[in-house]
Design a protein that fits this description.
The complex is a heterohexamer, with three copies of chain A (about 110 residues) and three copies of chain B (about 400 residues). With about 110 residues, chain A is α+β, with helices and mostly antiparallel strands. Chain A has one domain: Alpha-Beta Plaits, CATH 3.30.70. Chain A has helices spanning about 15-20, 70-80, and strands at about 1-10, 30-35, 45, 50, 55-65, 90-95, 100. By secondary structure, chain B is mainly alpha-helical. In chain B, strands 1-2 form a two-stranded antiparallel sheet. In chain B, α2 (about 35-65) packs across α3 and α4 runs antiparallel to α6 (about 160-175). The termini of chain B are far apart. Classes of the chains: A alpha+beta (about 110), B mainly alpha (about 400). Chains in contact: A-B, A-D, A-E, A-F, B-C, B-D, B-E, C-D, C-E, C-F, D-F, E-F. The interface between B and C is large, with 56 and 56 residues. Bound molecules: adenosine-5'-diphosphate (3 copies). One adenosine-5'-diphosphate sits at the interface of chains A and F.
């Protein structure tokens, strides 16, 4: 079980979500975040002075998926969240030890 | 002689119309992406402040100064020379103020076309040129004794001057500045619908001052303008809501857009038509502008916040409807139904000229400003968002 | 003859009362869960738009048409036939508009009882029936020459017509539609207290138009109504704040609720009592409505946003207080303290009838609509929230 | 004799000024940290409610009662005894109401100095003492026939009474209560800039009622006051914007602060100067207050929301500018440029006395309240935030 | 040391928090999120058309607890956050390598 | 690769961010959260009654960094986010299995 944690452009969120849906990936937790990454390459010039780039609104999607699905999910996010410009985002994969539901007392090892 | 009741009325109406400008800012701000929310509100304030100064310097005189060939006013009243506290019904200075808030609002509406990508310095220059070269002549034509007034065109509260002009100018501006990065493919959902609804509420409220105040008297005509304004807004809201419902879900943004469409359409008509015509005009405008918006989206035009579809097309609808529904018993002029088909023709000509003038001149101004200093922020700044890039501020999550 | 000062005043008051409707929407919207915020604001707009149309079609006539047996007005003024720009003091059309915004607001208040669970289509049908069968007759009784007016019941600005009726109707509706899923056990904290406070501020502001405007003149009576309105609001706010403080912490929602309670209670009394009575009425209403709210919660009634506790019970308190504190020197009628105990009895009867009528008829309408088309969304829709389920929109985190 | 037009005007102006108080609350609330947002809005409401009651009990009488040695009014009108619905031009009760909303607003502005750290109970006690011992005498001096009026000091709408007094009182209070924990080192960014801009918009709107209403007539003077108010606001906004731009980026908070600075500065002058002077006064105030703010920050003073820099220093600027730019043709009094240098001296003396009195007396009151019950919340409460600590409420992320 | 990450109904948050408190679990970081999970089973019909279900407001609680406490915490969340209907939420357990305070320079191996 | 997850005072965020910047750490994802930790020691007395302390606004910074950088990052946060009073916050370190960009199809093993 892995947690795929993708930080993407808010503008691409809808197409990513729809694409994941189409491929049967439903479970996700979404957070509006602010982020900074490769856009450090972006410099805003202001009255001659280069200003440090601030944080930019991003959307973080957390999906816990079975180990086998990790590649698929990453592929879908890349295919649908890409514009090719700095700021498209990052995907982190974290190990998950266990997952369960609140609704029942059963463990939920089979994943989402 | 100054009438205290009328003066009281116009004083307050002026304040109410002033509130429409931040109303537009909040409405627009709620509809853009979060990284440009502050920018939209700030643009509306800046538009208003800029025009307020321009107005007393020369705008008022260009609009209401002694007529020159029916095209523009002379500069006799520049710096408000000779405008005093006396007047006919209301103090002259109050008339200046009342007209000032209209001019400021109109420029704020135009920001729709450049939302999320305009450079603030270029907006200041563009705005100054635009209000001087587009708004002031139009105001002169309709209300300052220009050709349109002489020609008999009816525009009670600014259907052509304010709405057609701002709508088509926003369109021209949008064509010059170009689409937002990613427009079409990217999702660009409203970041704050409650804020947009609040903005809409302030618009609805202020519009009473806008339309009823245009009677320039606290009398039966103002009352007529007031009630038809409300009726058209309500009918527009319900019409858009139901249309959207048939094709999907009845969203609140659609509802408030419909209300604004109704308000726009009743603007030129408010002192000429009665309550039942207002139902028709409001509902018709709701449907018509809904259609215009769908058309705009299908054509891939990024006139981002629909000033064209709602103010521009709603203004056309209203101007023509005025020619159809005007009743002599209310405003002294008959329209088509009341037996005067010529009026509709006059309205058509007026609309045509205003559309052509405002679109054309704005296009030229926008090109010139773009060539000289660049209208648009850099790609990086657009990505980062104008709040940070232009204002150095941001809205927290 | 039309008086420009009075006409100016009522024109603006009408706009101010209009602003109360989105004020209610923002107030309610801030109090529900985030997933229903848009829904509450939209319902208020929809209520207002719906009633605006109904009012010119038949509502005005049912309320103010020629009296039929003291119960309802005739349809002579349907479609505003014969209502023109002339009038006595103010243009007739303006009176129509002024009364229209009251009717729209009242339906918006009623949405309290169905918050977070009403189907929008059913609300449209219910709203239409309700304003026609409940609001219009009540308005006729009190202000259109109906039995209550003939009987001598005092209701300056709508304590019975607007507040008791909306409060008890909300209660009836809440009983029919049933509790929200998880009510009682689940936390249902306000999602946006600043928005609720903003809504409250707009209510307070608009209420000046509501109460002072009900003098239908810009005179000493209006001034009296204005100042007692402010005093009662302030006293109500402080009274509720302190009571809440004694039992815990002085929350801002309590403070603004107290202000609204004070405003409600002074509504029927504003043209009959003086400033010092207003302190007592406001503070008393704050305490009384606080008690009613606590009672409502203890009884596990899900009249979700307390229209009953604040408008309904506050309205009763105010109607009776009018019978106690009325002074002949202000409104021409004496109450208990001024030596006319009979007035209190008249008020009691009036209150009783209005409570029974509005609760009863609303209950029946709600049952019928529920039986025919279902008042309530499905369990899934309620879980998902009305913003998405009904409007296809949502508020970002 | 009561004039309906004038009465209509002042009734509505009073309501508009009332709306400024929540406007201040929203403006301040948007500028503090998220954990104190509700607290700031609530404080503004509480200030207003408290003063509303104090005003009818004794405040009005202390301000406008029969003059005692030029210092304060007598208690003849306590509990509004003898104040009725008649009057000269407007009903006496309306004058009471109009002045009431000024008093309430002023205390709300003062909360700037104690933002994010005041104990609500101490604020109630402080507020009561402050409005009684500082505001009421100042109002008497300027408008109630006190020494300043006799001396010939000009203050059209409250430059000294409202703005200098609140600004310097906020400073005194800030010195007594001390800096916020971490002030200087910690980031204390505005939590909600759009809300602050909305608050600013309501202030701008209400200020028309504030300044034009102070003409106490719907006449040419009111019109003059109205238009110069708008011009000064616009000029102030643009001036501050450009100054901030030169030194960095043109933020929206700067823009709206500049507008408020312009509004403050034109307040004492609105009935004495013309439109072109207003451009100068507004722009000058924008620059001057910008400088004052920078100075305040450099000195490490935690007068948290800049009532001192904007209202206090802007008020001084405006009071002196009145002495410079006053024209006999407008308000009947000449200033320096119009050939009466003595007026500037009078203004200087007036300013000096008001600064000293309001700073000094506030300092003493604050020390006394601090000694008796403690002005400030505990360190833990400050860390947790006043929303939770004082009100038991919180703003969700 | 584990991070227990529970995504639950906003309506149940208060009772879960209080219950955790009562059992001595104080440390937590709470985020308002939007989520989608088993409510994919929920279908909103709209004018005959079935609409895809959108994201619904949820509350995410992150608690870093010692390995021994994981079961207890999960039990408390289940006991107090359950309504038995779809949407009650999920609990993920992630491994944590270390935890420390900002206030002091000491490591904080003993957990929260 | 580790995820350093720091929950700090909102007031200290700017100085922490600037300090990280100065040391070449750019990539970060920031979330506004509510938190509760050692401030359980804080008790608000209200009318004699001690009130439970509620959640307080905090800022959560997530940074994925190479194993070698973990200590440096923690050091910077501590140095710049500390006031020495309860509430300064916690830092959690979580293992990360992989990290990649959305913009390109290349893995990104070298870290941020
Ligand atoms: N090392 C990192 N740790 C945590 N979050 C990161 C890191 N690098 C990037 N991010 C997140 O990813 C977002 C997008 O990163 P960015 O570098 O702009 O994308 P790209 O590399 O595709 O251009 C950032 O805004 C930030 O939220
Ligand atoms: N696979 C997943 N990955 C991440 N978050 C998930 C996943 N599945 C569910 N969630 C989160 O849990 C929340 C509740 O899930 P849901 O399936 O509705 O609960 P339940 O299974 O108890 O009915 C979702 O809204 C989502 O935020
Ligand atoms: N065990 C925990 N699990 C998750 N988050 C925690 C935990 N302990 C603390 N936090 C987070 O860290 C923040 C600061 O914790 P706190 O204990 O107040 O800091 P300090 O220990 O430095 O005084 C809390 O508000 C909470 O968001």
């Amino acid at each position: 079980m892995k947690m795929v944690c993708a930080v993407i452009r808010p503008e691409m969120f809808d197409s990513v979500k729809t694409a994941l849906e189409a491929d049967g990936v439903y479970g996700m937790t979404v957070t509006e975040v602010m982020g900074r990454g490769a856009q450090r390459g972006i410099s805003l010039k202001f009255r001659g002075k280069v200003m440090p780039v601030e944080l930019i609104p991003k959307v973080k999607i957390e999906m816990v998926v079975s180990d086998a699905d990790v590649e698929k999910v990453i592929g879908i996010i890349r295919a649908n969240g890409r514009t090719g410009k700095p700021g498209d985002g990052r995907i982190f994969v974290l190990p998950v030890e266990s997952i369960c539901r609140v609704r029942t007392d059963l463990e939920d090892p089979a994943g989402p | 002689m100054i009438d205290t009741g009328t003066t009281a009325f116009i004083l307050i109406c002026t304040a109410m119309v002033m509130l429409m400008t931040p109303g537009v800012g909040l409405f627009y701000g709620g509809l853009v992406r979060r990284k440009n929310l502050i920018s939209m509100i700030a643009l509306s304030f800046i538009a208003f402040a800029l025009v307020s100064i321009q107005w007393v310097v020369c705008g008022y005189s260009l609009s209401f100064g002694p007529d020159i060939l029916g095209l523009v006013g002379g500069l006799e009243y520049a710096f408000l020379q000779g405008i005093g506290m006396d007047g006919d019904g209301i103090p002259d200075l109050l008339f200046v103020a009342f007209q000032m808030v209209f001019a400021g609002l109109t420029l704020a509406i135009v920001t729709s076309g450049v939302a999320e990508r305009i450079k603030i310095s270029s907006f200041l220059v563009f705005g100054l040129l635009w209000t001087t070269l587009v708004y002031d002549p139009l105001a002169h034509w309709a209300w300052g004794g220009g050709w349109a007034a002489q020609f008999g065109a009816l525009d009670f509260a600014g259907g052509t001057v304010v709405h057609i002009s701002s709508g088509f100018s926003a369109l021209a501006l949008a064509l010059v500045i170009g689409k937002r990065l990613g427009f079409g493919g990217h999702g660009m959902e409203p970041n704050n619908i409650p804020l947009a609804l609040l903005g809409g509420a302030l618009l609805w409220f202020g519009w009473f001052g806008f339309n009823a105040g245009s009677a320039l008297a606290a009398d039966g005509l103002a009352a007529n303008a007031f009630i038809v304004t409300n009726i058209a807004a309500a009918a527009g809201a319900l019409a858009w809501l139901c249309t959207a419902w048939i094709r999907g879900r009845p969203g609140s943004i659609g509802m408030i857009s419909g209300a604004i469409a109704g308000l726009v359409a009743i603007t030129p008509a408010a002192g000429f038509v009665g309550p039942m015509a207002a139902v028709v005009i409001g509902a018709g405008a709701g449907l018509f502008c809904y259609g215009a918006l769908v058309f705009r989206v299908q054509r891939g035009l990024d006139e981002s916040l629909d000033a064209w579809a709602i103010h521009g097309m709603g203004g056309i609808f209203g101007a023509l409807a005025t020619g159809v529904f005007a009743v002599a018993a209310i405003g002294g002029v008959s329209g088509l139904i009341d037996g005067n088909p010529a009026q509709l023709l006059i309205q058509l000509v007026d609309v045509g000229v205003v559309v052509a003038y405002s679109f054309g001149v704005t296009y030229v101004i926008a090109r010139v400003v773009d060539a000289v200093m660049g209208l648009r922020v850099t790609e990086e700044e657009e990505y980062v968002g104008l709040d940070i890039a232009q204002h150095g501020e941001s809205v927290r999550v």
